[in-house]
Write a structure and sequence with these properties.
- By secondary structure, the protein is an all-alpha fold.
- The termini are far apart.
- 58% of the residues lie in helices and 0% in strands.
- The chain has one domain.
């Protein structure tokens, strides 16, 4: 198995020590796989069964990384302009429901 070494500033390394329970190698592997799958998806428009299995395992999909389409952004902005009632707390909301 290959090994990879990263250079980190001392300050950043000390910050990472606060998270000793985190498996940084596993996070690096997942993020690298996500990048490879995303690049492949951009080029081909599809993903393999193995890539799909990985995506399902970590609850991530390449389309999650794509920017929103302009037409969808316009629809969202139209919805935002609608009339909404603003509540200051959950309790206030539930009081109105009862």
């Amino acid at each position: 198995m290959a090994s990879l070494t990263l250079s980190l500033s001392d300050e950043f390394k000390n910050q990472l020590k606060n998270f000793r329970w985190v498996n940084w190698s596993e996070i690096a592997k997942e993020e690298t796989m996500k990048k490879l799958i995303f690049e492949n998806y951009i080029k081909t428009g599809s993903i393999s069964d193995g890539e799909w299995e990985f995506c399902e395992k970590i609850d991530w999909h390449p389309v999650d990384e794509l920017p929103l389409k302009e037409e969808f952004k316009k629809k969202l902005n139209e919805i935002k302009k609608g009339k909404f009632k603003k509540y200051n707390s959950v309790e206030e909301l539930f009081a109105k429901i009862k």
